[in-house]
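Predict both folds.
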Amino acid sequence: PYHWTVDLERSFFPDRYDSNHKSVRGFLLFEIRSEGENEVLLRRSHHVVGKLKLNGEEVSAGDGTRLHLRNGRNIMLFDVSGSYHLMQFPLGLECEGKLQAGRIAVIGPIRDDETFSRIWESGDPEKAPRDLIRDVPEEAIAKVDVWSLTYWDRPVVGVEPRVENPDAMLTPNDEWSVIHPSEEGDVRLLLDFGRELLAYTEFEIDAPEGTILDFNMFEGIQEGELLLTHGLNNSFRYVCREGRQSYRSYVKRGFRYAYVVLRNFSSPVRIRHITSRLSTYPTPERGEFYCDDDRLNRIWEIGAYTLRLCMDDTYLDCPAYEQTHWVGDARNEALINWAAFGDPRITAHCLLQTADSLRRSPLPESHVPSGWQDILTAWSLLWVISVREYWQFTGDRSFIERIYPAVKITCDNFIGYLNNDGLLEIEAWNMLDWAPMDTPRAGVVTHQNMLLVRSLREASEIADLLGEGDGERWRKTADELKEAINRHLWSQEKGAFIDCIRPDGTPSPVISQQTNTMALLCDCVDGERARKVRELVLDPPEGVVTAGSPFFMFFLFEQLARDGEIERMLDLTREKWGFMIDKGATTFWETFPGWAGKRWTRSWCHAWSSAPTYFLSTEVLGVYPEEPGFQTVRIAPKPVGLNWCRGRFPTVQGEIDVEWRKGEEGFELVSHVPVRVKSHLILPAPHKARQVRINGEEVSPDRLPDGVESLEIKKGKVEIRLSRGGEWNLSIS
């Protein structure tokens, strides 16, 4: 089709180079000259979409609309008013006749209603004041929009392209695939790279000069429907010189599938190979998890691989879309990293990079570095929590000393947002989950008040560690905030916390699993209220908003672990993550089905969704740093419904190997721990455990071998403390 993609930002905001939301009120004028009357098919694809008037008459501006062009000059006037990050405007026109673009101009920004209405009602750009009309500069009009072209391409029914030896391009060998030109149209190939990738694209071809290869990379095929990456120009064009040549893309992209369209060739094109070069953060795969439920094994493995694709120079939200260090995502990703890879460097880098955003914002920004200056309140709070967790997993005091000033600024600035009721009230992006929660941009949002309580308490631990005097003050503020939350945000009628107090002062009618999970997780509710909240969280009644994304499930799993609800956690894992596997997922999705319309998800690879990898290692295998930096490791297996499990947990001290087996008469465990690391073992035991053996020797609380500090036999469990590492064999019967 005839096509144009216009960068409206350069015309409406020529002096701005940030990526903040930009609000505009105005029009885009297309003058199209037609040789004779023509029926055309309007094609739209992405980003800016607005109402349309054609020659003064309002018509549908949707993709696939049929329009009638009169002979000669036609005026298309698009209302492009709105608020945007990216102001790209693609337009395609398909027809049998000849068209030619005339003037392309913007009208605006328009300040007053009268001028706007006069122009729109008439559909005549001549009604606009001359100082509001500006031609779009040539450099702001893309010569080619590969994404749109491949989106608009339509198969020629009943015609098969002639392709010789198509498999040759898929594997390293000396053979060539040969694609012959067709008089019926261009030739399109669909490639499946087998799994999601973050990779550079490479190929070697032999082609006539001027041959065009258009690549459009995408992630998902849902029940036969190919889902291109709407909102992401995940594409590129290569124009061939004569003969044999090879190319590697300068940009790495996230994808599993690729459309490759060959255009403008009159003799055969030979393809030696089309391949990808995986490029992620360089860290070895140190963590392992295996058990007698292969579904759980597969989930752990996919979760770890999902995280690998979301680790580059920073943690990424996803390899395809933003490829950005989103701070809240990174908190959960860091925990998953401890279980799968155990690499502290990328976490330290991300924490410091986030702290650096305090140079221009009062709170850590939602994603860094970025031309979009944005605060997402929960993400700022999760950053504080992540700093304390970094200390737990590394014991790196020098790092904590370095980052503490940023923690102090963050906590004190948050306290500055407390209102007269003692509640956090801030105008910012206040989301927590992709779900229909009531979290307006202004007002008092309940879940982030609760997160502030937890953040202040965890920051106080850091302050105490360093001998700073801020801890007592922060704990006092946290206690007062908890009291205010219970006084103002609890619904006696519904027996739960409401989502918010709206900007007009009215309490929200919305009750969500998310908000009430945070009440428990952040220790903001006690007694009878806690019992009611726990019932709601575990079994949400009708009308309560439930989880929309695997991201929120991470927090739910944290609380389930605290409550000992491991069986429920594994059931949800098998159900929610098992569904993705059953649908062919090679990485875990951004959302559960239901939030992204008819699509199962937007992003098909989001490491905020890898929660099971962390919890299978910390709860089922049972490994966690009881003391910072794994000076003491807690090994507390939870064999709910499983007969055996083995795995490896990477730490800053070295790898910790654990294998356990549960039998009808008892429990066995073998651990191999770095020599300097102490162990606290909490092992399940038969109701009437009578015998404990350590390294083959029967032991009792008053007869302990060397290296065993203590032994306690309790109802249903045995606790053992070991003073050194090495290999230990334990059996309970």
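Second protein follows, with its predicted structure tokens after the sequence.
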Amino acid sequence: MLKKFGLYLVSVAAVVFLFTLIGGREPDDAVAAFAPVKNGVNNPASSRKNNLVVTCNAYSGTINPLYLETEADREIVRLVFDPLVEPGEGGAPVPVLADYTVSQDGRKYTFTLKEGAVFSSGDRVTADDVLFTWEVLCDPTYAGHLRPAELGIVGYRAYVEGSATTLSGVEVVDERTLSVTLEEPSAAALFTLGVAPLSRAYYGTDFAWGRLDNLLLQRSRPMGCGQYRLTAMTMELLTLERNKNYYLGAPSVPTVYFKVATPELAAAMMKEGACDLDLTGGSDSLEVAGLDHLVRTETAGDSYGLLGFSCQSALLKDPAVRRAVALCIDRQALIDAVFGAGGAKPLTLPVSAASFAAPAEPPAARHDPAAAVALLEQAGYVRNSGGIFVKEGVTLSLTFTTTDNNPASAALGDLLQDGLAKAGIGLTRRSLDYGSLLNQIRLGRCEMWFMAMGFSPDPDPTALIGSGGTFNLFGYSAEKVDDLLARAAAETDLERRAQLYDLLWQALSANPPFVPLYQRVQPVVCNLRVSGLSFQEMRPVTAEFYRIKW
């Protein structure tokens, strides 16, 4: 799934602001749509009868479920494309465009498309369209955000290497049904397999193994099976018209505009009634008190911050040292310094508070340098004449590397400087630009650093902390953790899987690969004229725009 690394290690690509794509300029009716409304109206947005305006951060210009780059992309794509499956409450998978079953051994998924599912062109969505989408995912030239190699589809390796012309593990049963068999059970595979289907007739022209040229050419002219269809786009304004062929019924709002805005501009537009929904994430500063036409809500954000460790370094290979460092960090002070009140919440486990895998009562965020001292003494460390701990002639002095122009990294460095000094741990600070830091981390030459990352709907952290994991930048390897990761990833029963994750969190608390610091809070401000819209963690806000009523 889409992962947001705030150092941006698996990152969102740089957004290029082009003024091409579908349209050339903002349509006149769109300009009028979010013009300020006269004061004195109880709800200043009420005069806009036929459109809904959303303010958002920059989007990439690629409107395709296989190539998400920004959070705005995800919201827009969800309007144009319905996925087969998406996360529901707690991140549990729920069927959308297709129902699904899982075989008893957890290796075979069978999808059955909903009756009446059609693309905006009016053509039916078929099992062959889903097959085409999976063929694109498994193509050797695919370079999107999804990771098909981790699915373990039977026949994937032969297909990607070109020794087979089909995916042997995929079977089209009939026009609405197909199945896929995996090498091993994988609960996390469902969200990737459940990605929104692409029309073979529209996107598959001249499609051939190793050649996705036509599909890429269509990235700014999407045609999907979702609630709305894209009719005009610049890199500042995007216009969508309701899909009259939508299988759940045409939405009641004829037109939706996505307007790129700064948080400050979005707040002003919300106050004036010039927009209806702010997704910039900057609404935490918007005072809604006294503004009867607005309501503010919060959801658990999908990004979190952590202190990374090089677990193979001479000093940090000892879990006791890593645990001691964690006790020296005042998480709330970090949040207050970087985000202000309400911008984030302390985090002690590498799982979203909204996930089914999160314990009902997570460990408390402890800031206790005295406990760190006791832990180090139990591990055989003694203080030298300067008050710094020493063991076997080696002084316990660590290096923290910050990134240039990163407020969270700088604030964490200040807090570490103070907290570690109280615990008898030395600290040296250095600063590098992003590229140099990334290179040093990969070479194992950074002892500690700050990183921000994104949660995926599925809580499996194997790629992050499993031995040899794709994004394991910590040099972390623990046999017990690997065993629990494998068992949890293969378990398709959510209750049993949550129990395995409870055991995993306990193991990570005793032997941490990094220190979770905070989870962002996602504020959303909505005009009260918009009813029927639900806000749910891990799912795009736009998932149920078709339910909106004025």
